[in-house]
Amino acid sequence: MAQTARRQRLAPEVFDLPVEKMRAGYYTDAYFNHTRSVLLEDGRHPRVLIQVFQKNHAYLGGMDEAIAILKLCAHDHDGLVIHALHDGDRIEPWETVMTIEGDYTAFAHLETVYLGTLARRTLITTNVVRVIEAANGKPIIFMPARHDHHRVQTGDGYAAYVAGQITGAEIGVTTDEQASWWGGRGIGTVPHSLIASYGGDTVLAARKFAAWAPPDMNVTVLVDFANDSVRTALAVADALGERLWGVRLDTSESLVDRSLWEEMGDFNPTGVNERLVHKVRDALDAAGYDWVRIVVSGGFTVEKIRAFEEKGVPVDAYGVGSSLIRGSNDFTADVVLTDGKPSGKFGRQYRPNPRLELVE
Q1: What is the pLDDT of residues 158-209, one digit of tens each?
Q2: In the chain, how many domains are there?
Q3: 339, exposed or middle or buried, with CB in 10 Å at 0-12, 13-18, 19+?
């Protein structure tokens, strides 16, 4: 079952788990706590083998965190034998991604939390990989922080980073917390709020931002504040010159950019659409600013990115938010062997996986 090659795993301490509460079953579905209590009351300590799987074509996330939960929060970790795949592994429907063998009373109370961890992180990793694939490897800015609770940022950011490692694409996250497990930093553009703070003057806000920004920061400016992205992009480029790395289009899906008002009738003109991107690109190139990148955001999904790429829309990077945290990728754990004998429920037999590695 174990392979010779060893790949690095994150140390359990990285995850800053609420160990005492997890060990006490505080985050656990009550029936698992009840199960453990019944077994302890009866003096029964069955040695079980649990196998964990899911039912989709996916990219695994959260495995190192799930292992950390078992190592730090089981009542007798030394008595457990764990075999597992690695974060970032491509997994098949029903494929066993982890087995846990040992006294069931030592870890029965942890099933809820390690399954939930695998479900959330695998969802994020898989969603980000699919976006990167749709974008043909172009840089992705991971922007869901404002769409979910702050406590999910750390692991979600790392799951996005894993997706970047799988594909070799550049992934930027927007908060330091999202980047904390790998020692990165959050990135960001000149936001609408800074522009508003300078009375709606995008150029002034961009100048102030560029004067403040460290030399190694890629200065990127939102240019949709006045709903006139072509004019604003040119004005910002004139003001910042080579200090400008890129402009970001973020037109609301309920608005039509001013540059398109005379062209409506044969396409959907709202939001960030392909014609708007071409107009901004053509204007920048004509003015001699061919090095200025175009970043797009606002309602981008795998489908919209794929459509842009198929049509050759000149986008350099995509900012993607809420679509990366939507969906589900549920995991299941089954006891399939008890004291060495088959004990799974009907239809759930032991399925060994030669790809699993022994966890040390």
Answers
A1: 999 999 999 999 899 999 999 998 889 898 889 999 999 999 999 999 999 9
A2: 2
A3: exposed
* One domain, residues 135 and 192: yes
Check whether 1 has a pLDDT greater than 60.
no
Shared domain check, 161 and 32: no
CATH number at residue 161: 3.20.20.70
Q: Among all chains, which residue has been given the structure tokens 């102030």?
A: 208
Q: What is the pTM of this model?
A: 0.91
What gap in Å lies between CA 330 and CA 6, rounded to an integer? 27
- CA Rg, the chain, in Å? 25
Q: What are the tens digits of pLDDT across the range 216-260?
A: 999 999 999 999 999 999 999 999 999 999 999 999 999 999 999
Q: Say if residue 31 is in the same domain as residue 145.
A: no
Is 4 part of any domain? no
Residues 136 and 17 in one domain: no
Beta strand pairing call for 317-320 and 140-142: parallel
Q: Assign 210 to helix, strand or coil.
A: helix
112 & 172 share domain: no
